[in-house]
Amino acid sequence: MNDQTTVVAQLAESLAGDATAERAEKEKQYLKSDLRFIGASVPTVRRVARTFVADRPALTVEDLKGLVEALWNTHTHELRSVGIAVLELRSDLLRNSDVGSLKGLIDRSTTWAHVDWLAIKVVGALATRIPAVETDMDEWSADTNFWVRRSALLASHDRLAAGQGDFERFERRAVPMLQEREFFIRKAIGWVLRSTCKKTPLRTIGFVERHAAEMSALTFREATRALEPSQQQRLQRLRAKNR
């Protein structure tokens, strides 16, 4: 690959095509972020990433990791987003030994917009392809950084939403976090349970039946949102009875 500085500059130029100062300010305020914003749209970010990948069929994992590190060091939201999009497109290059690098990116992330994308589409894809990564996710679930703990939960999202995945393992990760006060943890547990409900509602119902008394109002509301009203009411009564 060409010099990383040159590549980053080229990507920034590509992103600037449809960028507006208004969008940059709006996104910065919405995400409450201290990163710099170019003002490029998400479709533009994805297009730039697709073009980059298509132009480099011989990309190596070392090239990939070097690029993402360089993009992270810009402290620019959209450039980091391009890095994640490229990781998603070429997650096939990643190995079990790259989990530490992904954790490093999450450790240095300060916004759900990057954490969730990395967790679901990059870490989750890696865990699907290499089941041994699940052991790392078990460790992440007890990490001191709540973004890493959130990632351990969300890495299972797509598989559970598809009616697959190891729900019992997700439950073992989630239960110790049920009484956390951190909004992003409470929301993540409920989100995964709500998505799980679409294909395998009995999994979600069983979880809520077992842990209704421990769940925050936010987690309970998110988890049961997609259930039939009669099921919601029954579980609400169960939660009230056991609290």
UniProtKB/TrEMBL annotation:
Gene3D superfamilies: 1.25.10.90
Domain of life assignment: Bacteria
Database matches in Pfam families: DNA_alkylation
Signal peptide coordinates: none
Protein name (record): DNA alkylation repair protein
Organism: Ralstonia flatus
Lineage: Bacteria, Pseudomonadati, Pseudomonadota, Betaproteobacteria, Burkholderiales
